[in-house]
Amino acid sequence: MPNIEIKARCNDLKKARATAEKIQTAYLVVLHQVDTYFSTKAGRLKLREINDKSAQLIPYVKGYQLAPMKSDYAIMLVENPTLVKDLFNTLLGIEFVVDKNREVFLFENVRIHLDEVVNLGTFIEFEAVCADNSEQEHRKQETKVANLMKIFN
User: Fold this and answer.
1) Mean pLDDT throughout 87-98?
2) What stretches of the chain show up as alpha helix (H) in DSSP?
3) Burial readout 6-31 (b: 16 or more C-beta within 10 A, e: otherwise)
4) How many domains does the chain have?
């Protein structure tokens, strides 16, 4: 499943929250997420534990750059995250763990994440879900993300 995304440091989450409210986003939820990243030869593989209640295995591939980028990913529900984490640690090794509190807003098809990450700081992320994998759709979503970057400064 493709999306267009960008993540950046955000020194003022209060201001970002006010901007999200101003443009009339839908406020979805506050989440506590612990992402365990496993060592891979290509792309990334993470186990995301959400609010100590559910978990997802998320493999993805993206080109890292300082602009909106395409990411191809899949989300697989995990029933036993402890077992999965132990098995993937044995098979691949753990690269790092990211512990964050995330506020999620929705503007049209773009998820806006306001993140407080333990030991790393505060961030904002825009994820525009693509309707298909065409170049035209990618450009359309890149434009949406670029516009939000301007709005949120």
Assistant:
1) 98
2) 13-22, 81-91, 135-152
3) beeebeeeeebbebbeeeebeeeeee
4) 1
